[in-house]
Design goal:
Elements lengths: L3 E7 L3 E8 L5 E7 L5 H11 L9 E7 L2 H7 L6 E6 L5 H4 L26 E4 L2 E2 L5 E3 L3 H14 L3 E5 L8 H13 L4 E4 H4 L5 H29 L4 E3 L5 E3 H4 L9 H16 L5 E6 L4 E7 L2 E2 L1 E2 L2 E3 L2 E3 L3 E2 L2 E3 L5 E5 L5 E7 L18 H7 L6 E2 L4 E2 L2 H15 L3 H23 L12 E4 L7 H8 L4 E3 L6 H6 L4 E11 L4 H21 L8 E10 L6 E5 L6 H19 L11 E12 L21 E6 L24 E2 L4 E8 L8 E3 L2 E4 L4 E4 L3 E5 L5 E5 L2 H7 L4
Parallel strand pairs: 1-4, 4-11, 5-6, 5-9, 9-10, 13-25, 25-26, 33-35
Antiparallel strand pairs: 1-2, 2-3, 7-8, 11-12, 13-14, 14-15, 14-20, 16-19, 17-18, 21-22, 23-24, 26-38, 27-30, 28-29, 28-30, 31-33, 32-33, 34-37, 35-36, 37-38
């Protein structure tokens, strides 16, 4: 019997599917339109589409990347949510933090947004613990029952519980849950000691409430999928691991960056195999673009992330998202200037060229008008109405007083700068030089603007994998099972016995979870880490902690790693200064169940000759008109390699290549268009694309002097 593993990534516009035959290693990819009203429909359509001639009985496992939780938060729909906290701390959400969002500075124009739970649905219960978890005042059972009955009578069915210092002792929260189960059995409850056993009560409260807010929706969605599939499946988590659907319904907040996390991991594996261990990843979809940094094969992790306006301190891959996707809508401000995004046409009605009722010009419409994408998607499955795109662009151009070409090119230029700003946030803002990193561009719209990004950011190269639209779905099949556990223990004088006890308890929790996931003990992997800071600092730095016995040598190694990491991050450290003590804050354990990753096949070399174009089309490249641009006026000379013909108005007759026709070592020179099933790469004048050993296209700016020599010359 054949055994196939399937990865399904549900995006805002398309659902991407990858299947790997575990006997032959064959990789099959496909896409199908997403169904926002019921994402499970698109999921099942994709599964059946990737299994021609096979049944679900032939499937050995399914891993799912979902945006259900993320979309609920981004659309700001946490309705009917209640909050229970310690008596005297009812305004913890209102006070929040003193920081003002970036872009406002200290401006008094900034107004705090509405809280995730309004004040009238915040209730307090008597009882108090100190920072060591010792009981100062006993838990008030009658108070708790009164609060539970109030929520029941008000019809509030999703409740978050966060008591002061419950990270040190969860006993009071456990008693509150028991009262809620007795008095309000229909409620869905999240405890902060289960969601985030870590100090800082505001962040812990909001993280717990986010978990409670998405739990009912995720449970309905997972139950719906499980019923339709009739088999177990796993769900991608934000921390770069997966978890069975049966377990993930108890901690749905861990899925909030499910799809983007899979994309970063899939791109990391593809780039590492091709010899690029450190890269920037750019995942361009229909609604947004997600960027991350991979250093030495590992995406950066953070616990300081947020989803929309809600801080979420769960471990997650450090991803910056910007509303710059193929469906991003172009619009004019009251001042008459052109803007692009963050609002998106999504999958329904979609861009104007989809012919499904969309009326506003999108980035995809601009690409269609300029000839940079074919008049169809998915190999002809979705025809595009180029005439409708042209009419919409011309109407917008009339409002702006520009030519249609300049309007469409301006839309793409704004989108490219939106993407480049996100890349700068993930690199320059974190002390990294963007020019040191090649970029992996994937997603349906990811490769469309890579030539402009090379120029804007000074990137050394861009790698476009085969089937770029399915990299996130492929990434789902490369991910280990992973659970994270944390315990706050703030001290400047760490007791090795205490550290060993805490790490032991966290490891036991991780082992229990891996047992439930079906991993035998000899396949358990545990990764320790610790958060440290210099005494007096407000925030800490996480460093890996070695395995083995927790002794003085272990302590010295962790401290050495902290000093080194702090210096790398901030440019200074106090390694040899006894005036600055080091404070331990959090101890962490990740339980990992490793899987066998699919092998990436090599591309055969061409047996003589060169790649032949499959046709030609008219394509507009505005930069070719700029004096001193990509090769100056010589880039329009029909004698340039790859050019079929050009004109003085920016329109080219450019060759169109099929990605599947390319072989290892093939080099194409722009202008050209490279098409494949799930994506398109417009190769601008003055750029080359070379197919490497694994079928990736490596895009670079061509040598200008060589380009001038090969042209007609000036």
């Amino acid at each position: 019997m054949r055994s196939v593993r399937i990865g399904v990534d549900t995006g805002g516009t398309f659902t991407d599917v990858v299947a790997v035959d575990e006997q032959t290693g064959q990789i099959t990819t496909t896409k199908t339109p997403s169904t926002p009203a019921d994402p499970a429909v698109g999921f099942m359509n994709g599964v059946h589409k990737v299994l021609p001639g096979l049944n679900l009985e032939d499937v050995g496992g399914i891993v799912h990347g979902t945006t259900v939780a993320t979309n609920q938060l981004l659309e700001d729909r946490p309705l009917d949510l209640g909050f229970v906290t310690t008596e005297g701390f009812e305004f913890i959400l209102e006070i929040a933090r003193q920081s003002v969002p970036d872009g406002y500075g200290n401006s008094y124009f900034w107004v705090k947004p509405p809280r995730i739970v309004p004040v009238h649905r915040v209730k307090t219960v008597g009882g108090r613990l100190d920072h060591l978890g010792e009981e100062v005042r006993p838990f008030d059972e009658e108070d708790a029952a009164r609060v539970a009955r109030w929520f029941r009578d008000q019809g509030v069915t999703a409740i978050g519980v966060c008591f002061l210092h419950s990270y040190a002792n969860p006993a009071h929260e456990h008693r509150m849950r028991a009262v809620l189960e007795r008095e309000h059995p229909g409620a869905v409850v999240s405890l902060s000691s289960d969601v985030l056993r870590e100090y800082r009560e505001y962040e812990r409260s909001v993280t717990t409430l986010v978990d409670a807010a998405v739990k009912p929706t995720m449970r309905r969605y997972i139950d719906n999928l499980a019923t339709r599939l009739g088999m177990p499946f796993s769900v991608m988590k934000s921390n770069g691991g997966v978890l069975s659907a049966a377990e993930v319904v108890h901690q749905p907040i861990t899925t909030v960056l499910s799809g983007p996390a899979a994309g970063a991991l899939g791109a990391a594996l593809i780039a590492g195999t091709a010899g690029h261990p450190s890269v920037i990843t750019l995942d361009g979809g229909g609604t947004s673009t997600d960027v991350a940094v991979v250093v030495d094969g590992e995406p950066s992790l953070t616990t300081e992330g947020s989803i929309g306006r809600y801080p979420c301190k769960i471990p997650m891959i450090d991803i910056v998202t910007v509303g710059a996707g193929g469906g991003s809508i172009a619009w004019t401000s009251p001042e008459g200037t052109l803007k692009v995004g963050p609002r998106s046409a999504g999958a329904d009605p979609g861009p104007v060229c989809y012919g499904k009722g969309g009326t506003e010009v999108t980035v995809t419409d601009a690409h269609v008008f300029l000839g940079r994408v074919p008049p169809h998607l998915l190999g002809g499955e979705i025809p595009l109405d180029a005439g409708a795109a042209r009419a919409a662009v011309e109407a917008l151009a009339g409002k702006l007083g520009l030519t249609p070409e300049r309007t469409a090119a301006g839309i793409l230029e704004i989108s490219a700068f939106n993407q480049s700003n996100a890349i700068r946030q993930i690199t320059v803002k974190r002390g990294l030089d963007v020019r040191d990193f090649p970029m992996v561009a994937f997603g349906g719209s990811g490769p469309l603007l890579v030539c402009r990004l090379i120029d804007i950011l000074g990137l050394p190269a861009v790698v476009v994998p085969p089937n770029p639209g399915n990299v996130s779905a492929f990434g789902l099949l490369t991910v280990d099972v992973k659970n994270d556990y944390v315990r706050t223990h703030v001290t400047r004088d760490l007791s090795l016995d205490t550290a060993a006890r805490i790490f032991g308890e966290l490891t036991d929790q991780a082992a229990d979870a891996l047992d439930r996931e079906g991993f035998p003990p000899d396949r358990h992997v545990y990764a320790r880490s610790a958060d440290l800071r210099y005494y007096g600092q407000a925030y800490e730095v996480r460093v890996p902690a070695p395995a083995g016995p927790i002794d003085e040598a272990w302590r010295a190694e962790v401290l050495d790693r902290f000093h080194e990491a702090h210096h790398k991050l901030y440019g200074y450290g106090y390694r040899d200064d006894p005036r600055h003590a080091v404070e331990w804050v959090n101890l962490r354990v990740s339980g990992i169940g490793p899987i066998t990753r699919p092998a990436i096949p090599e591309l055969p070399a061409r047996d003589g000759g060169t790649a032949a174009p499959a046709g030609e089309q008219q394509v507009y490249f505005e930069e070719a008109l700029a004096p001193g641009g990509a090769g100056g006026d010589t880039t329009r000379d029909s004698g340039d390699a790859g050019a079929v013909g050009g004109s003085e108005d920016g329109w080219w007759t450019a060759p169109v290549y099929r990605r599947g026709d390319l072989r290892r070592g093939d080099v194409l020179t722009g202008p050209a268009v490279i098409e494949e099933y799930g994506s398109t790469l417009p190769l601008h004048p003055g750029f080359t694309a070379e197919a490497d050993a694994y079928g990736n296209l490596v895009i670079r700016r061509a040598d200008i002097s060589a380009h001038l020599t090969n042209g007609a010359g000036e």
